[in-house]
Amino acid sequence: EAQVTQNPRYLITVTGKKLTVTCSQNMNHEYMSWYRQDPGLGLRQIYYSMNVEVTDKGDVPEGYKVSRKEKRNFPLILESPSPNQTSLYFCASRPILFGSPLHFGNGTRLTVT
Amino acid sequence: DQQVKQNSPSLSVQEGRISILNCDYTNSMFDYFLWYKKYPAEGPTFLISISSIKDKNEDGRFTVFLNKSAKHLSLHIVPSQPGDSAVYFCAASGESTNAGKSTFGDGTTLTVKP
């Protein structure tokens, strides 16, 4: 089954404790991206990657890191999480062709206390 | 500056009637628009799209209209069904500005009453 898999689904952590949210897709998509969803703010793009070893900032990249060492994986790293990073995070992928629709994972709900 | 806006946070319609969800944008360089549907505890799923060279795209019960001069698009669902109850997001991209970026609206929660 074609899918984008995020782990974990739920995560509670404390301020400053480094964490990684994993994202993997099995559709051989070149493009991958991370979003956060907050009430009243919709989906905001954090980082995206057009292909292996190519990453770029979205609209809200502060406090986040990503890497794209393999085509299928695009982990999101929070080196020093803060409470304002409490949010619902979605990973997505699509073919490189502009206008192709995104395929989303089921989300990771992160709480930073 | 919010470049994509969905001004109605919620919409309630009766089963069988038409649902119209609206989306406005400010960036004239956007040239591709997509609608996604999201159920609770799931990721968004793609519904329908339209490029700026068209003014209408239809897929079954779903039709998207684009008015470039007004920078406005709308999603029509006819007839509406209870299973359509979800949050709907519109998204916009501009190939000439930054093909990797997608800008989403805040979403509209649609409730279809049986």
Return Rg of chain B in Å: 14 Å
Largest interface: A-B, 26 and 26 residues
Compressed to H and E, one letter per element, the order of chain A equals EEEEEEEEEEE
- How far apart lie the N and C ends of chain B? 38 Å
Overall form of chain B = globular
Q: Uncertain spans of chain B, ≥5 residues at pLDDT below 50? A: none
Summed up, the helix count of chain A is 0
Structural class of chain B: mainly beta
Residue-averaged pLDDT of chain A? 95
Count up the helices of chain B.
1
Strand content of chain A: over 45%
Give helix % range of chain A: under 10%
Global morphology of chain A:
globular
Mean pLDDT of chain B: 94
- Rounded Rg of chain A: 13 Å
Q: What structural class is derived from the secondary structure elements of chain A?
A: mainly beta
Structure description:
The complex is a heterodimer of chains A (113) and B (114). In chain A, the strands form 2 sheets. In chain A, strands 2, 4, 5, 6, 9, 10 and 11 form a 7-stranded mixed sheet that branches. In chain A, strands 1-3-8-7 form a 4-stranded antiparallel sheet, with no helix packed on it. In chain A, a hairpin with an 8-residue loop joins strand 9 and strand 10. Chain A is mainly β. Helix content of chain A is 0%, strand content 50%. In chain B, the strands form 2 sheets. In chain B, strands 2, 4, 5, 9, 10 and 11 form a 6-stranded mixed sheet that branches. A 5-stranded antiparallel sheet of chain B has the order 1-3-8-7-6, with no helix packed on it. The N and C termini of chain B lie far apart (38 Å). Chain B is globular. The A-B interface holds A 4, 31, 33, 35, 40-45, 48, 50, 56, 58-59, 90, 92, 98-99, 101-107 and B 4, 6, 32, 34, 36, 41-46, 49, 51, 89, 91, 93, 95, 99-107.
